[in-house]
Specification:
The complex is a heterotrimer of chains A (323), B (392) and C (219).
Chain A (H helix, E strand, L loop, with lengths): L1 H4 L2 H30 L7 H37 L10 H5 L4 H28 L6 H27 L10 H5 L14 H20 L3 H28 L18 H26 L5 H29 L4
Helix pairs in contact in A: 2-3, 2-6, 3-5, 5-6, 5-10, 8-9, 8-11, 9-10, 9-11, 10-11
Chain B lengths: L4 H12 L1 H37 L4 E7 L2 E3 L1 E2 L2 H6 L4 E14 L4 E8 L8 H7 L4 H5 L3 E5 H9 L5 E5 L5 E10 L10 E5 H8 L5 E2 L1 E6 L5 H9 L5 E5 H54 L4 H33 L5 H6 L16 H27 L9
Parallel strand pairs in B: 5-9, 6-8
Antiparallel strand pairs in B: 1-2, 1-11, 1-12, 3-10, 4-5, 4-11, 6-9, 7-8
Chain C lengths: L1 E10 L2 E11 L4 E5 L6 H8 L7 E6 L2 E2 L5 H11 E4 L11 H6 L9 H14 L15 H13 L5 E5 L7 H16 L3 E6 L12 E6 L2 E2 L3
Parallel strand pairs in C: 3-8, 3-9, 6-7, 7-8
Antiparallel strand pairs in C: 1-2, 1-4, 4-5, 9-10
Helix pairs in contact in C: 4-5
Classes of the chains: A mainly alpha (323), B alpha+beta (392), C alpha/beta (219).
């Protein structure tokens, strides 16, 4: 345990998370107070003071939420670095498995990012309305996010403290590799059908986004996210590693692959989150969906697709065959 | 963006009010410079060390006597060769020779020049030598630190070793190792194995240890166990274990440093908080004016945040650049002593420039987050200034 | 254009404005006359959206400025109202041109467009020749003209002036009134709070509204 905690990256990471949490806690306290006393139609001096205090909450929230996006990348980086210390781990995949907290922590982090993107939309619509129309919804979401981030902090510490460097973990080849007979792909698909679905879904996503078909878009993007994960790990990844048996979502984060993993996972997840939450808030709040949000989502997802496909194409042109 | 009025106004404000921010920037510079220099030195050393380690053989086998490493019989090499999966078995002779009157020591390394080295580092060091002429007499290659030390003691082209048998052995210095970034080379004396055996007092069929490589990493555990079974007094050490050990050592030292540094940072944050509270309270009238002519709270927040981030970036870039120049161009005078210490022989190491994304990110996070966090509340306080303050 | 109904303003315990009712039409020029303490400055700051009333309603071009969230109130102020303050309130460390461009910065206009607008308004107020002079180095009259330029740069419909001639000599005061006349001819709605007798009989002002102790006294 000590070796892990004294690792420079882990220290910086935990310190950052703790500091941000302290700020968030202050915002939480103010937010609760403002929530209970808020009465937009009263126009008393105390109401205006509340309006000013809600700006404090918004300011802190913006700062922390933006930092969270950077910190999840730093988390991935730290976990990867730890693979030297943990027996049997060659990349982050093994380290995450070092104890039971790892998987939950990762999923929690992604959920938090999802919630944050939604909060950004809510805040935007709230400030654009003449009477702080979405104040209550925004505040409730903020309080939920606070609780999630509290849980995240607890899991952060628990995870790092409980990494036993002497306990060997599985390497990605046994975690993601072809287990005898079992097909790791969902719905019993094979690679060809997976890829067809991948590209088809992308077209559907683009169309529904451009035509502003919100329900269809949410469905198609969720499916695309799911399929894209498998496509990246079980197909495109092998072209990044140039080894048909190397299947791993974490190894591509390493320096020898030019850190391309960060670009890929970031564009896929954040692109999807921005798009899906834009659609959700548009439906929920009955507001017009943000053009800028849709454009950003489209850009990120297209970049993801392009980058994945590029690896395959470049390999094919260089070698004349596919893996 | 260059045409953007916000940025225009921002640069205007920063420039015209630079005296307000100079103190903070200077303080930040010191903090970042210190942190970056230490981290640069540490990662450079680690990189060099790991590079050296990488070149080491996968496994090293020694005989134990009373639990301590002892002279290893050269026959064990043949036994090792019989195990399937083992390659490049190299019996090694090496040890410390003490320069009695000065209480300093040299690292004597015996090399079988005709065989392939299992230690890739040694291989690169001796690659430039003319083997025939080298083996024609009693010759050695020495490291820079050794050369300097011997010259100080009036040994210019050769040295008289006193062997354990009580006999003096004169050995000529053929060339000097000039790879400054190789930490180990400094104290080294490389000579033919037979000569090393004589000087260190080994018999002809005795060696210090036996090194070997195993090509397939999956077989390491397997072979480890097989080798252990050969003799009860055999000890085997793997490269992996050493790597872990060093990593832990670095982490330990680095972690201690960082923990102390964090305390410094918290003080820094407090100072920032106080200072900006003060600065901003003098700005209230001006901010009130901005509000009065139509700037919203959001606009003021945006301006102040951009101001803060600009300061963070400027300090960061300047601080890191200065640290880079200090560490990798001037070889970190003063700090270097703290890291390397003048333990044995004088070390004139040049730090190999190693700049890792991880190090830069760590520096950025550990600096930017406390900075912005401490400025946040003062920024908010000034942004909500009532417009009517302009009337006062 | 400006509709004020039953406006009250309290500071701590004292009532500074009592039951103000005032309707100002588009293009009208109105003078609020009264000694210091009469509440005219407070009323002006309420109209300008710099402060909020304790009670009553205040509509600027149909919008209840006191009830709007900060974003909207600021935008309204920026686009529809220009204020000239008694003490000019310039940023001393900036030049004339830089001071004048301030209201336009949050609007998102590009820098070159902003500079065009600034130049044209500086010409209008006869201060273009001092464009790059630091505000701290200007004379009273020049500061006044800079303040007017700043109030006009966003091309607002309403201009509010608080004791505009209090720190000027006679010559500059007359020049100022000339500027006001030109603005009136352009159709601006203007409210001037002052106790300077020069404003008692302006040819272009439609009304002089006397104020005593926070109340409008019948003319």
């Amino acid at each position: 345990m000590n070796e892990v905690l004294l690792s420079k990256d882990v220290l910086v990471y935990l310190f950052s998370e703790s500091l941000l949490f302290i700020l968030l806690f202050i915002a939480f306290l103010v937010s609760v107070k403002v929530y209970f006393k808020w009465d937009f139609n009263s126009f008393t001096p105390s109401q205006f003071k509340l309006e000013q205090e809600s700006y404090l909450v918004t300011t802190i929230a913006y700062f922390i939420f933006i930092m969270k996006f950077f910190l999840i990348l730093y988390f991935a980086f730290t976990v990867d670095k730890l693979s030297i210390l943990v027996a049997g781990a060659m990349c982050g995949a093994g380290v995450i498995q070092a104890n039971s907290y790892g998987d939950y922590l990762l999923i929690l982090k992604l959920s938090i990012l999802f919630g944050l993107t939604l909060w950004f939309y809510l805040n935007k619509y709230d400030l654009e309305s003449k009477n702080y129309q979405w104040f209550k919804e925004k505040s409730v979401l903020f309080i939920f996010l606070f609780l999630f981030i509290l849980a995240e902090l607890y899991l952060d510490f628990s995870y790092f403290i409980n990494i036993d460097t002497h306990q060997p973990v599985s390497c990605c080849s046994s975690l993601f590799g072809q287990l005898e007979g079992a097909n790791p792909l969902p719905f019993g698909l094979n690679i060809v059908t997976l890829l067809t679905l991948f590209y088809l879904l992308f077209i559907v996503v683009v169309l529904t986004l451009l035509l502003n078909q919100t329900y269809l878009y949410i469905l198609s993007n969720l499916l695309f996210l799911y399929i894209a994960y498998y496509a990246l790990v079980y197909f495109f990844g092998t072209y990044i590693y140039q080894l048909p048996t190397h299947k791993c979502p974490f190894c591509m984060l390493q320096k020898e692959y030019y850190y391309v993993g960060y670009a890929l996972w970031f564009s896929l997840f954040i692109g999807s989150f921005i798009g899906i939450n834009g659609a959700i808030s548009s439906i929920w709040l009955k507001e017009e969906s943000s053009l800028r949000g849709r454009k950003t989502a489209l850009l990120l997802l297209s970049f993801f697709l392009f980058l994945c496909s590029a690896y395959v194409l470049v390999y094919y042109f260089r070698n004349g065959v596919l893996l | 963006m260059l045409n953007n009025s916000f940025f225009y106004f921002l640069t205007l404000q920063l420039y015209k009010e630079k005296s307000k921010h100079i103190a903070v920037v200077l303080l930040s510079l010191v903090v970042i410079f210190l942190l970056s220099s230490v981290l640069f030195i540490s990662s450079s050393l680690r990189y060099s060390l790991f590079e050296t380690l990488e070149a080491q053989p996968d496994f090293v086998v020694t005989k134990l006597k009373a639990g301590e490493p002892s002279t290893t019989p050269i026959d064990w090499a043949d036994e090792l060769l019989e195990i399937y999966g083992i390659s490049k078995v190299t019996p090694r002779v090496h040890g410390r020779y003490f320069f009695k009157s000065k209480d300093k020591s040299f690292l004597v390394v015996g090399v079988d020049f005709l065989e392939e080295q299992s230690h890739k580092g040694i291989e690169s060091l001796i690659s430039g030598t003319d083997i025939k002429s080298f083996l024609s007499g009693d010759n050695m290659i020495v490291g820079e630190g050794v050369k300097k030390f011997l010259e100080k003691n009036y040994y210019r082209n050769s040295y008289q070793f006193l062997t354990p048998k009580g006999v003096f052995k004169k050995v000529n210095i053929v060339s000097t190792l000039t790879d400054k970034s190789n930490l180990l080379a400094n104290d080294m004396m490389i000579m033919p194995q037979a000569l090393a055996q004589e000087i260190l007092g080994y018999g002809q069929d005795e060696v210090t240890d036996i090194a070997f490589n195993v090509v397939n990493p999956d077989e390491w555990q397997n072979i480890n166990d097989k080798v252990l079974e050969l003799h009860y007094d055999l000890r085997i050490v793997s490269k992996d274990e050493i790597k872990k050990l060093y990593q832990n050592l670095y982490n330990y030292k680095g972690g201690l440093f960082l923990s102390l540094f964090i305390v410094l940072l918290l003080t820094f944050s407090l100072i920032l908080y106080q200072r900006y509270n003060m600065i901003y309270s003098t700005e209230r009238r001006n901010i009130g004016l901005l509000r009065a002519v139509g700037w919203s709270i959001n606009d003021i927040l945006k301006l102040k945040f951009l101001e803060t981030i600009s300061l963070v970036l400027i300090s960061f870039i300047l601080g890191v650049t200065l640290a880079y120049i200090y560490t990798f161009i001037f070889d970190a005078p003063l700090l270097k002593e703290i890291f390397l210490g003048a333990e044995n022989l004088e070390n004139s190491v040049a730090f190999r420039p190693v700049v890792e994304m991880g190090v830069l990110s760590s520096i950025f996070f550990i600096y930017a987050i406390p900075f912005i966090a401490s400025v946040l509340i003062p920024v908010w306080r000034v942004a909500i200034t009532d417009a009517k303050e302009a009337m006062l | 254009m400006i509709k004020i109904n039953s406006l009250y303003k309290k500071f701590n315990r004292s009532v500074v404005l009592k039951d103000i009712n005032l309707h100002i039409k588009l293009g009208e020029t109105v003078v609020l006359k009264g000694v210091s303490g009469s509440g005219k400055t407070t009323l002006l700051s309420l109209i300008g959206g710099l402060d909020r009333p304790t009670q009553g309603s205040l509509l600027i071009d149909g919008e209840p400025i006191h009830k709007l969230p900060d974003n909207f109130a600021s935008k309204l102020r920026a686009s529809k109202i220009g204020m000239v303050f008694q003490h000019f309130n310039l940023l001393e460390h900036l030049s004339v041109a830089e001071n004048v461009m301030i209201p336009l910065i949050p609007t998102g206009l590009k820098v070159d467009k902003i500079q065009d607008r600034v130049n044209s308004v500086l010409k209008l107020t006869h201060i273009a020749h001092k464009k790059d002079t630091l505000a701290s180095r200007l004379s009273g009259g020049e500061k006044q003209r800079t303040a007017i330029a700043r109030a006009l740069v966003a091309e607002p419909q309403i201009i509010l002036c608080d004791e505009p001639t209090a720190n000027l000599d006679k010559a500059n005061s007359l020049l100022f009134i000339e500027t006001l006349q030109r603005l009136h001819q352009q159709g601006k709605t203007m409210v001037i709070a002052t106790h300077d007798p020069l404003f008692d009989n302006l040819p272009f002002s439609s009304r002089v509204i006397p104020m005593v102790d926070g109340e409008i006294v019948d003319e």
